TrEMBL record, chain A:
Keyword Metal-binding: yes
GO CC terms in record: blood microparticle; haptoglobin-hemoglobin complex; hemoglobin complex
Family stated for the protein in its record: Belongs to the globin family.
Protein name listed in UniProt: Hemoglobin subunit epsilon
UniProtKB/TrEMBL annotation, chain B:
Keyword Ubl conjugation applies: no
GO process annotations (BP): hydrogen peroxide catabolic process
Organism: Neomonachus schauinslandi (Hawaiian monk seal)
Name of the protein this chain belongs to: Hemoglobin subunit mu
PROSITE patterns xrefs: GLOBIN (PS01033)
Key words of the record: Heme, Iron, Metal-binding, Oxygen transport, Transport
Keyword Isomerase: no
GO molecular function, one term: metal ion binding
GO cellular component, one term: blood microparticle
Pfam family, one: Globin
InterPro entries linked to this entry: Globin, Globin-like_sf, Globin/Proto, Hemoglobin_a-typ, Hemoglobin_oxygen_transport
Annotated gene: HBM
Domain (Globin): residue spans on this chain: 1-141
Similarity comment: Belongs to the globin family.
Domain of life of the native organism: Eukaryota
Length: 147, 141
């Protein structure tokens, strides 16, 4: 089980309080689909993904991004039990969605880059370290029930 | 490998880094060592807690090499051949570490450019730096 120190938790929660989950979620998923186009394979029914601007403006991408990041927010409230928080979602991503867990790591990294762009200097190396640890923990938790 | 548009994005971002290779490089290394402490295993000569001077010196060297890559996007293999030899024969950095460096590079760019760090820039730089990493590890075996 991943353990987060008090400082790491503060680094995460203090930034999270200032994040617009709807906007950031859409941006994170959009950037994932643009920067790593092969990830579009999971979203055939999302409509127009033909260009960067089409992807970033796509309402289904924004909606799904918001859903994903909202779930992230639940993780942040339970950083000491990521495996528990994501148990059901892990089963879903394996059994129904068939998503390679590598994609969770890619999305986590994109989210960190977005936070860096939003927070600038405030996103210090120490803050980045806490967030990278969190996104890695979430990715591992989401892969935990794979079989 | 890089489209015309992607080359423009790479060059545009480089214009902002050129002249500041030392400070960008130092921040890059500091983030790398803070976020991924195992990467310090390749920098024994800098000690467990490298000081600012060491980070600036080595960071400058690394970013100057990136600058060479930017000038030779059409022919990375030739331009980076000596560095590829160095990595294959002397440094032998496990290839799994390059994505960690690339992640930190993107974070440095994003935190400095903020709202100006467009998705097109992120995509172009990720592709470009990944290409550089491929060339640097190509002679490993």
């Amino acid at each position: 089980m991943v353990h987060f120190s008090a400082e790491e938790k503060t680094a995460v929660t203090s930034l999270w309080g200032k994040v617009n989950v709807e906007e950031a979620g859409g941006e994170a998923l959009g950037r994932l689909l643009v920067v790593y186009p092969w990830t579009q394979r999971f979203f055939d029914n999302f409509g127009n993904l033909s260009s960067a601007s089409a992807i970033m403006g796509n309402p289904k991408v924004k909606a799904h991004g918001k859903k994903v990041l909202t779930s992230f927010g639940d993780a942040i409230k339970n950083m000491d039990n990521l495996k528990g928080v994501f148990a059901k979602l892990s089963e879903l991503h394996c059994d129904k969605l068939h998503v390679d867990p590598e994609n969770f790591r890619l999305l986590g990294n994109v989210l960190v880059i977005i936070l860096a762009s939003h927070f600038g200097k405030e996103f210090t190396p120490g803050v980045q370290a806490a967030w990278q640890k969190l996104v890695a923990g979430v990715a591992t938790a989401l892969a935990h029930k794979y079989h | 490998m890089l489209s015309t548009q992607e080359r423009i994005q790479v060059a545009q971002v480089w214009d902002l880094i050129a002249g500041h290779e030392a400070s960008f490089g130092a921040e890059l290394l500091l983030r790398l060592f803070t976020v991924y402490p195992s990467t310090k295993s390749y920098f024994k000569h800098l000690g467990f807690c490298p000081d600012e001077t060491q980070l600036l010196t080595h960071g400058q060297r690394m970013l100057e090499a990136v600058g060479v890559a930017v000038q030779h996007m059409d022919n990375l293999r030739a331009a980076l051949s000596p560095l590829a030899d160095l990595h294959a024969q002397v440094l032998r950095v496990d290839p799994s570490n390059f994505p960690l460096l690339i992640q930190c590079f993107q974070v440095v760019l994003a935190s400095h450019l903020q709202g100006e760090f467009t998705v097109e820039m992120q995509a172009a730089w990720d592709k470009f730096l990944t290409g550089v990493a491929v060339v640097l590890t190509e002679k490993y075996r």
